[in-house]
Amino acid sequence: GFVRSNAVFSGGTFASALTAMGRGPQMLRAARERRLHEPRQVGRRVRTPAGSPHFNGATGTWALPLPTVDPAIVGRSARALERYGPDFRYRHFASVKTLPMALGGPAAVGALVAAAQIEGVREWLMGRYEAGQGPDAERRKRSWFTIRFV
Q1: Taking the complete model, does pTM exceed 0.70, yes or no?
Q2: Section 12-28 average pLDDT
């Protein structure tokens, strides 16, 4: 899916994202342990590769792998439910119009992930945009998002 939006995060969403970014090793360990207990699929294949940044001709935008929890949830659902078919693949991209955004966005996210590894810095960042803060009613009214499946 190719995701586009003009929405703004709330403080709570920002805090949740920073917390998740700061728990990378723990989250990977939990995912590995969970997979040990999940039944193996016979005759079915489910893949959720991250993909790589590229210009997508079908959308006319730059596609950047979107490191959210959504592909993992889609993949787990596809493994659990046969209705996803025998060979299922899903990738999730942020879809941006300009090359400067395609270059600057990942750099900013990378800096945020690095900062989230340091507890004091993570807490300081959370204090800049606290839970309960967010876009006002007018901004929420103007917000939109699209997901295009190709």
Answers
A1: yes
A2: 88
